Amino acid sequence: MSYPDKKRFEADMDDQQAQIETIEVHLNLKDASVASECEVNNLQAAQQVHRDKIHELKRNHDESEGRD
Questions:
Q1: pTM of the prediction?
Q2: pLDDT at 2 (0 to 100)
Q3: 37-67 and 3-32 helices cross at what angle (nearest 10)?
Q4: Sorting pLDDT into bands at 50, 70 and 90, what band is 52?
Q5: With the C-alpha atoms ordered 45, 64, 4, 7, is the resulting torsion angle positive or negative?
Q6: What CA–CA distance (Å, rounded) separates 68 from 58?
Q7: Which is nearest to 51 in space by CA: 30, 29, 21?
Q8: d(CA 58, CA 38)
Q9: Confidence of residue 34 (pLDDT cuts 50, 70, 90)
Q10: Helix %, strand %, coil % for the chain, to 5?
Q11: What distances in angstroms separate CA 29 from CA 24, 25, 46, one per listed residue?
């Protein structure tokens, strides 16, 4: 993997992790308030989207490493 590709991969991973952490903060705030179950479910679903994206990025990274 070239240096720019590796940097892009790392930046994408960092971005997805930051999104998960931001949503986690929102979930914690919602838990402390009177959040509706729907709001919490929506935040958890959004978090899962970012986790799935991380798995996809890792899989693509591993596949590209195998081709180099």
A1: 0.68
A2: 79
A3: 160
A4: very high
A5: positive
A6: 15
A7: 21
A8: 30
A9: low
A10: 90, 0, 10
A11: 9, 6, 16
**Residue 64 in tokens:** 């590209």
Say how far residue 64 (Cα) sits from the centre of its chain.
20
Nearest to 63 by CA among 11, 15, 55: 55
- With a pLDDT cut of 70, the percent of the chain lying above it is 87
Residue written as token pair 């081709």: 67
| Average pLDDT value for residue range 34-50 | 84
Please report where in the chains the tokens 């693509």 appear, as a residue: 60
Q: Which residue has the tokens 């991380």?
A: 54
Interatomic CA distance for residues 62 and 6, integer angstroms: 11
- Residue pair 24/43 in contact (Cβ under 8 Å)? The answer is no
